[in-house]
Amino acid sequence: MKVIGKPDFLNLYYKQFKPYLRGIDISKWNNLNLYLLTPEEMPNTSLNSTRPHFQPPNTIRIPIVNIEGIDTKVVFDSNIHLIAHEIGHFIHTTYLPNEKIDDPLWGKWANLTGNKLDFTWKTTNFGGSRHLYPHVPSFEDFANNFKDWLLGKCVYMEKFFMSLWKQNAKINEEQLNIFKDILNNTGEDGKIKLFEILSKYNPRAIIYLK
Ligand SMILES: [Zn+2]
User: What is the number of other CB atoms lying within 10 angstroms of the CB of residue 44?
Assistant: First the structure.
């Protein structure tokens, strides 16, 4: 995975997004290019090209919109879930076959998440000045689920996602409960020690404790 953008965007990425990737072997996402761009730098080639998007097979472009009077840290924070979602599109495009309703991997994902598979194109009208938004429901559900997992909101998906790029799950629900118990019941010293040990042996687990 390569991240491309001006130095202040890269700094924000390393401080605010990179921590979510702790414990993930992102060298396995070896040909992914993530571009963090100013709105002016976004391509103007199609209806969707100026908004955050994944362009198959391996390009993500995120416009970082600077708003006067708002701290760039806050601005970047609002993009974290968008970056995670677009990486989700890269993941299903790379590791799951496109639009195969009877594929075992898609079936497994649907079972784990309770989602229904739907690979038909839908068009959503957001109204007002916004143009119609074409999408495939299962691709969007997958990208949202991946985002939730990456940001530490569903430990039960750890095994499934990590296995796609042949990594073992770093933590399961049982271990998470033990760590939460230590976090809540061993005082300040216990907390410090827990994070020390996790940083060394299982940095991915920290995502779920924050
Ligand atoms: Zn999407």
Answer: 7
